[in-house]
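Progress report, Aim 2. The chain analyzed during this reporting quarter is listed below.
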Amino acid sequence: MGELRRLRSLLPPELQSWVTVEPAMDVGPPLITSEELGKDQIEVQIDLPKWEQLAIDQRNLLFWHEVARVQNDTIPRDGWEMAALASGLGGAVGELWVQDGLLLLLAMGLCGISGWRLYKRNNAEKTLKEAMDADEKAIALATRFGYSLPNAYKSLGSALKTLIEQTPKKKQRDRYVKRLEALKRSANRAKDRIRAERDTQRAY
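Predicted structure tokens for the chain:
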């Protein structure tokens, strides 16, 4: 519980009233994930036994990555699509039975729209891009909480390397690898920008 209190203290003030941090209760849960409990209420869930095997700095950056996902509004929601898909499929089967062509077309249309929305929401490239954007924002959050820019990049990079080593599923491991590669490119750009700013200051 002490770790959960520590993590709550790492929430930006503007999130503290509607984001909570709790231990994960599922069997074999993800290391860290977020769930929308209702309108304007997000719960960040932590698998504490796995979590506490990581170094403090690694935990902090992974936590801020999740916070960044909340800020970017990319937490998955149980929207209307699954209910609509089920209703559409049920309706299509029913209309086949009674042979009403117009209602069948409407039911199939509902299936198509809801299926397309689900595909877009779960698209692998989209979710990877969202994760990379959250990594960038996590770095900014870390600097807001007192990390130097190099240390923020180093801590998140170290956390991703550890996740790569510990993840048996190839698909998930490849996602961490791509995030790490993107983070390295971002760190190099940041170094070049800092170097250019120093050179400009010397010139004056």
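The CA atoms of residues 132 and 178 lie 9 Å apart. Residues 81-121 form one domain. These observations will guide the mutagenesis work planned for the next reporting period.
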